[in-house]
Amino acid sequence: MRGAEAVSTYRGLPEQEAFDIEYWLLEEAKLQRMPRPKALAGRVALVTGGAGGIGRATAERYLREGACVVLADISDEALERVGAELSGAFSADVVRTVRMDVTDEGAVAGGLRAAALEYGGLDILVSNAGIASSAPIEETSLELWDRNMSILATGYFLVSREAFRLMGAQGIGGAMVFVASKNGLAASPNASAYCTAKAAEIHLARCLALEGAAKGIRVNVVNPDAVLKGSRIWQGDWLKERADAYGKDAAGLAEHYRERSLLKREVLPEDIAEAAYFLVSDASSKSTGNILNVDAGNKEAFTR
Ligand SMILES: NC(=O)c1ccc[n+]([C@@H]2O[C@H](COP(=O)([O-])OP(=O)(O)OC[C@H]3O[C@@H](n4cnc5c(N)ncnc54)[C@H](O)[C@@H]3O)[C@@H](O)[C@H]2O)c1
Question: What is the mean pLDDT of residues 216-229?
Answer without folding.
Answer: 96
